[in-house]
Amino acid sequence: MPTKYRSAAEALDGLLEDGLTIAVGGFGLTGNPNDLIEAVRDSGVRDLTIVSNNMGVDGAGLGILLDNRQVRRVVASYVGENKLFAQQYLDGTVEVEFTPQGTLAERMRAGGAGIPAFYTKSGVGTPIAEGKPHAEFDGVAYVQERGIVADLSLVHAYVADPAGNLIYRYASRNFNPLVATCGKVTVAEAEQVSDEYLDPERITTPGIYVQRLIQAAAREKQIEKRTVRVREEASA
């Protein structure tokens, strides 16, 4: 059973220190554990390694940790949409380990499953594979990738129950279930914390993976890139 806390700051108390590796759920600005990210920012810890698909956008999501110069290294699949991230990478102030998106997902899953490494065709023959062990299977070259085990995982869910079981809403599911499994300690924020146990058939992340839990503050959903068009009237 996870311990429920009143705030993100309380939930992270005693867990944060300089130099941690933190895995964070979300894709763009969808499914970001914003309360927990803000608590990390407010704690002032530095030299962090962040494992996440991307680093949000300028001034939002994980971008606020870049604004505050708290990040030393990023393991991600995408730099776009965040000018500060790209600039810090080009300046050499933030080290970036690029990982194909599917490989990143599998590295998290493997870490959570206790699998130290696996082989994949993705990245073979590119800079991604340089310096990594290779092997041939059935006449095809593969590159070895290591599973990821983070010191701390931060996830955002739609509903949590007293046992810490989690379900996610639509696209917010993205990397969150994988992140939840690969942390030595996982802290979850949920939009709703139910007093009743969830239907087992609906659960995505079993509560065994979740050690600490908070109810997320209500906030307006952020849209990374709003695209609209003029509505056309239906023809007669």
From TrEMBL:
It holds the Pfam family CoA_trans. GO terms for molecular function: transferase activity. It comes from the Bacteria. Keywords: Transferase. The keyword Iron does not apply. The keyword Transferase applies. InterPro entries: 3-oxoacid_CoA-transf_A, CoA_trans_fam_I, CoA_transf_BS, NagB/RpiA_transferase-like. NCBIfam families: pcaI_scoA_fam. Belongs to the 3-oxoacid CoA-transferase subunit A family. PANTHER family: ACETATE COA-TRANSFERASE SUBUNIT ALPHA, KETOACID-COENZYME A TRANSFERASE. This is CoA transferase subunit A. It comes from Amycolatopsis rubida.
